[in-house]
Amino acid sequence: QVQLVESGGGLVQAGGSLRLSCTASGSIFSINVMGWYRQAPGKQRELVAAIRSGGSTNYADSVKGRFTISRDNAKNTVYLQMNSLKPEDTAVYYCNVITSISYWGQGTQVTVSS
User: Fold this and answer.
1) Predicted local confidence at residue 1, as pLDDT
2) pLDDT tens for residues 15-24?
3) What's the per-residue H, E or C state across 20-34?
4) CA-CA distance, 34 to 36, in Å (whole number)?
5) CB atoms within 10 A of CB 25
6) CA dist 60 to 23, 38, 43, Å?
């Protein structure tokens, strides 16, 4: 079993920055992919960014150039640096970790005021 602990959400004005962190603990043998998803009210959960064990990344078009995902394999931690935040970035952000099973964090609220 793997547990995920997220931190870093909050309220920020448009144009501001936030950094999300997610640390995995438990029965971890090999993490393949670490990523962040988000879900706004009334919308489906969507992929924001993901990073593979080799370091390759992919981003949603809506966040390219503003968000950066990174990971510290020694700490089993993934980060999401979010810059130039917009009101439409407001959502609950979920950490996702894939070993042979997909695990989800509890979610952290990000609210961007205009």
Assistant:
1) 84
2) 999 999 999 9
3) EEEEEEECCCCCCEE
4) 7
5) 12
6) 22, 11, 15
